[in-house]
Amino acid sequence: MLRKFLFAFIAVVLTTGLFAPFESHAVFGIFGEYKKVKAVDGEVRIPLNKVNDGKAHHFVYKSDGKEIKFFVVKSRDGVIRAAFDACDVCFPAKKGYTQDGDYMICNNCGRRFHTSQVNVVEGGCNPAPLRRANVGDNLVIKVADILPGARFF
To answer: Are 12 and 21 a contacting pair, CB within 8 Å?
Structure first.
């Protein structure tokens, strides 16, 4: 029964063109939406008021045909943090992280990481840190800091 429903759902999605809106505004991965970002003068600027709600926001920066994915989340301590949507261990699976309350969860191995530790603890299955700075009303991430993350994707 479930198999029939799944096939019917896929057929409807493919035949109705529901994928068309994804091309212009976002990239969709296995576990959700990645908003496309572009750089101006070597920097990606994300308005702080768009990412200060305590929810993980996933982004993708495209360079030389490669999509580099990262997330931004405001932890309970008030710090806005950023990390690549990958880690040193599970990146070959290309599954990234989802959020469960104050934790980011690896979609490959299921390990949980408190959001207050993003950008603090690195290595292993921790989300790979991404340097960022609050500048005025924006979170600023330099392209030079994003590009090394291409190795994960």
So the answer is: no
Contact 103, 113 (CB under 8 A): yes
Q: What is the pLDDT of residues 50-72, one digit of tens each?
A: 999 999 999 999 999 999 999 99
First to last CA, the chain: 36
Evaluate whether residue 98 is within a structural domain: yes
Task: Count the domains in the chain.
Answer: 1
Q: For 77-111, what is each residue's pLDDT tens digit?
A: 999 999 999 999 999 999 999 999 999 999 999 99
What is the domain-level CATH number for residue 85?
Answer: 2.102.10.10
Q: Indicate the SS3 state at residue 13.
A: helix
